[in-house]
Design goal:
Layout: H1 12-22, H2 35-51, H3 57-87, H4 100-132, E1 135-137, H5 145-159, E2 166-168, E3 182-189, E4 199-204, E5 212-214, E6 222-226, H6 227-234, E7 243-254, H7 268-279, E8 284-290, H8 295-304, E9 312-315, H9 325-330, H10 355-361, E10 364-368, H11 374-385, E11 389-396, H12 404-414, E12 418-423, H13 431-443, E13 447-449, E14 456-457, E15 460-468, E16 471-479, E17 491-498, H14 501-515, E18 527-529, H15 533-549, E19 555-560, H16 566-577, E20 581-586, E21 603-608, E22 613-614, E23 617-621, E24 628-632, H17 638-642, E25 644-650, H18 654-670, E26 675-678, E27 684-686, H19 698-716
Parallel strand pairs: 1-6, 8-9, 11-12, 12-13, 14-25, 17-22, 19-20, 20-21
Antiparallel strand pairs: 2-4, 3-4, 3-7, 5-6, 7-8, 10-17, 11-15, 15-16, 16-17, 18-25, 19-23, 21-26, 23-24, 24-25, 26-27
Length: about 725
């Protein structure tokens, strides 16, 4: 298996650019929003979807679960990094001038409020609403005698056998608790020695046990009790002769970032495997524990975890609301969920036996999940079995557990084609899955490589080389999202399928740069990190400022997940001051402050949180009336510009350009249902509606538009003779 390719040392020009990008912005600190607090503001937007009665009830439960999932990752990576900086007395101030200690203090305050509001939403809004729909959540105190007997029997037969009580005393050291696992902390009294202080014990709860227990009973009403409540109610069975004084569920979040010096690693795959095994023992960064625990027990637990008390959060419970995702998945109530939507299949893609015949005649742009991801899978699968295909090159950042893409690559290799897979082993939280695929691909004869040392390969590219009557021809797929058919039904993304000689040649050049050696490649059409992406984006922004100064049309529309890079932000400020009208659609973190007098008055930022996760990156520069239009994998973050391999691709086809510029982007800027505007004080407010203005949801519009396009294409399709 090939290691990551070691590139020659960076040129002084690139090194200087990285230094400028990594430094703080040139403006005063108040010109920028804090990255971490901005992310918490985004997570509050997700919570608002759970609070909104406009959403179906079980979808609101799902949004509430997503808030917890987002917070877990936030602590595992972002907060863990800040705590390391604080502990080592190192770390540069944030873009807004805050030290790690100051950021952690503000994060704690923000998380405490968010957590309170999240649990208030559950107890005061969702639980009563679910009860009205025949889905009841009971506490131990609400169980009648029959229900309590059933719970005790369930505990005896299904829970007790897999629990292991762990005493904590001089003879029993504090156990190693896994990351994000549920545990129950108990204080116990021995009636024979009442003079002794309470004993401590922990019950780790295996992940294999379902966290939501459905009580046996009335078929018309689903009654659930949380597993943690079942264990607390029945835990006495594990400690005969003792009296349980208190029982509180808790969970520990640990540092989950991988710290690997790739320059010093001979076998990157093995090293990452070793590090993954160590993650469960990572430093504790957060303790969540149910309210009511006494101060002495709480302090003892924090001491054993080597965790400062300010990093512990007492919560109303239940812990880990992510487990409510199970309620959504197991409850067959279509009336409480979004109406089903089937991604549209475009008939013209089926008009010929092979996709190659379609792509050779025209570029194809697909808007997921409104339009099916199936043609992308078909592109790889047809390439695998087509006898005229000689080679396939593929990047894999994240993919599904039963990936048809990987299966097709394996099949292609077995059929004798040259297949190269560039697998990103460091795709956060997908490391183990990608290691598995890397091994299976290699066993099938696929050339597996890991990209450039020190860079994550995040670009979404697939290249196929095919022998045709007029010679070899390349075909490519370029996307904004991952090669994962499952998330392609949940994330909004764009896919481009093209046989354009200019683009396919540069994608081939990109793959050569990733798998071999050579000088820094030059790209005329693609914008590729870490090579030309950052510099070209700055040039495009500066060009808009020049157009505005000269009285020519000047506008920027940029859609992304995160905007953090200070150099880019400063240049956007400069463009705004020059008169460029700038609309930013930023899903999550945004460090740019819009609407500042004399600074960013011409910049508007909106955030869109809806049924689907906004994931596409689209960049429009008006260029004096001859617009540039790009899509691709890169956000405007320093890491994406310099520490990842990214690719933005131009959209040249006039019809496809009209669709993006005249339909997709305007619809997102028109949304007044799921969209919120970012204010100059870092808060989000609803998009105001003018008098008589109708509600407009971009995502709803895209679903309707895709269905209509597919149906219209069927109606006008020529009938067979």
């Amino acid at each position: 298996m090939s290691p990551a390719v070691k590139r020659p040392k960076r040129s002084p020009k690139i090194t200087a650019a990285i230094g400028r990008a990594l430094s703080a912005g040139t403006g005063p600190a108040w010109h920028y929003f804090n990255r971490e607090l901005s992310y918490l503001a985004f997570n509050r937007r997700v919570l608002e979807q759970a609070q909104s009665p406009a959403n179906p009830l079980l979808e609101r439960v799902k949004f509430l679960a997503i808030v917890s999932s987002n917070l877990d990752e936030f602590f595992e990576i972002r907060v863990a990094g800040l705590q390391q900086q604080q502990d080592s007395a190192g770390g540069e101030p944030s873009i807004d001038g805050l030290t790690p200690k100051e950021q952690l203090k503000q994060i704690r305050a923000g998380v405490e409020k968010l957590s309170r509001d999240q649990h208030r939403c559950w107890h005061e809004l969702l639980v009563p609403a679910l009860a009205k729909e025949g889905i009841a959540f009971l506490t131990p105190a609400q169980l009648d005698a029959k229900q309590r007997a059933w719970v005790e029997q369930y505990f005896t037969t299904s829970v007790l056998p897999v629990l292991t009580p762990l005493a904590i005393d001089q003879a029993h050291p504090f156990p190693q608790l896994g990351n994000k696992t549920m545990n129950v902390l108990l204080t116990l009294d021995n009636p024979e020695t009442p003079e002794n202080e309470a004993h401590l014990a922990i019950l780790p709860v295996p992940r294999s046990l379902p966290r939501l227990v459905l009580l046996d009973g009335d078929a018309k009403v689903q009654r659930f009790v949380f597993l943690s409540d079942v264990i607390k109610l029945c835990a006495g069975a594990l400690f005969p002769g003792y009296v349980i004084r208190s029982a509180h569920a808790f969970r520990v979040t640990r540092n989950s970032d991988l710290y690997i010096d790739e320059e010093e690693v001979e076998n990157l795959l093995k090293k990452i495997e070793d590090e993954l095994r160590n993650l469960r023992r990572g430093a504790a960064v957060r303790l969540e524990i149910e309210d009511g625990v006494d101060d002495e027990t709480f302090q003892t637990l924090c001491r054993h975890l080597a965790l400062p008390e300010e990093n512990a959060f007492r919560t109303r419970g239940p812990l880990n609301l992510l487990r409510l995702m199970g309620l959504y998945e197991r409850t067959d109530r279509p009336d409480l969920k979004y109406a089903p939507f089937v991604p549209a299949e475009m008939p013209f893609l089926r008009a010929k036996p092979l996709l190659f015949d379609v792509i050779r005649e025209r570029d194809v742009l697909l808007h997921h999940p409104y339009e099916s991801f199936t043609p992308v899978v078909d592109f790889i699968e047809q390439s695998a079995t087509d006898p005229h295909v000689l080679a396939i090159k593929q990047t894999l950042y994240r993919t599904s557990g039963d990936s048809p893409i990987v299966r097709a690559l394996i099949e292609a290799s077995r059929l004798g084609k040259q297949v190269t897979a560039l697998v990103e082993l460091k795709a956060r939280f997908d490391e183990a899955n990608n290691i598995k695929w890397a091994r299976e691909l290699e066993e099938a004869g696929v050339h597996v490589v890991f990209g450039l040392v020190g860079h994550k390969t995040h670009c979404k590219c697939s290249l196929v080389v095919r022998q045709e009557a007029d010679g070899l021809r390349r075909y490519v797929h370029l996307g904004t999202g991952n090669y994962n058919p499952k998330t392609a039904r949940l994330y909004t993304d764009l896919s481009l399928l093209t046989a354009s000689p200019e683009l396919t040649a540069e994608v081939a050049q990109l793959f050569n740069a990733l798998t071999g050696f050579g000088r820094t490649p030059e790209f005329r059409h693609l914008l590729v990190a870490p090579f030309n992406l950052h510099s070209r984006i700055q040039e495009l922004i500066a060009a808009e400022a020049a157009h505005a100064a000269a009285g020519r049309p000047a506008r920027i529309i940029a859609k992304m997940n995160k905007l953090v890079d200070p150099v880019t932000i400063d240049n956007l400020y400069a463009a705004s001051q020059a008169g460029v009208q700038i609309d930013l659609i930023v899903r999550a973190t945004c460090c740019l402050a819009p609407g500042l007098k004399g600074q960013s008055e011409n910049i508007r930022v909106r955030n869109l949180v809806g049924r689907y996760l906004e994931h596409a990156r689209i960049y429009y520069f008006e260029n004096g009336g001859a617009p540039h239009l790009f899509a691709g994998s890169a956000d405007w973050m320093t890491r994406n510009f310099f520490r990842r391999v990214e690719a933005l691709f131009p959209i040249y086809d006039p019809e496809l350009r009209r669709r993006v510029i005249g339909d997709i982007l305007p619809a997102e800027l028109r949304d007044n249902v799921d969209a919120r505007r970012l204010q100059s004080d870092a808060t989000y407010t609803p998009v105001p509606r003018g008098e008589g203005e109708m509600a407009f949801s971009a995502q709803t519009y895209f679903m309707q538009e895709a269905t209509a396009r597919a149906e219209s294409a069927v109606e006008v399709a020529p009938q067979p003779q």
